[in-house]
Amino acid sequence: RTAIETYIGIIDDRYAEVDGLDWLAERSQSINTSATMKRDELIPKNIQSTSKPYHFIAKFNNRQQFVKLAEVKAFTAYGEYSRAYWGSNQNMLFRKPLKKWVEELPPNVFVQIHRQSIVNLKFFRYLEKSSDGKTQIYLKDFHTPLDVSQRRATRLNNLLKQYDPNVE
Question: For every residue of the chain, which 3-state class applies, written as one string?
């Protein structure tokens, strides 16, 4: 694993994206791989306070890609795994349950609509009732509609009424 892959989750693009990347580049050149260091020595002081990941490195079509969470349209659950969808038909499976994403993602942008789905409100198009009476959400440039559970429909409607796409 490279230094960027190891530490990418600690960089918050709203506070220290450039500083964090510069620091990682300098740090990766100066770290002696046989030496053990404390966590506090590995994380720059200006970004230690953030615990939410705002970027990740994805492997897609045999190449690595730097993906911002703001570009992610949805997360879906696969047992103890989850799949993130972004761009045009790009996705990646994570060894991370949906429950962990709910704890880490900004709640004013990402909303859990079902026990198996989280959506990014920036990609919201419309809601519709399916032929079997279930509410479904349609996202911009997303392959299929996602079911909205009755339990989470009220919260989703309230968030959509107050949602401002310019605020994260």
Answer: CCHHHHHHHHCCCCCCHHHHHHHHHHHHHHCCCCCCCCHHHHCCHHHCCCCCCCEEEEEECCEEEEEEHHHEEEEEEECCEEEEEECCCEEEEECCCHHHHHHHCCCCCEEEEECCEEEEHHHEEEEEECCCCCEEEEECCCCCCEEECHHHHHHHHHHHHHCCCCCC
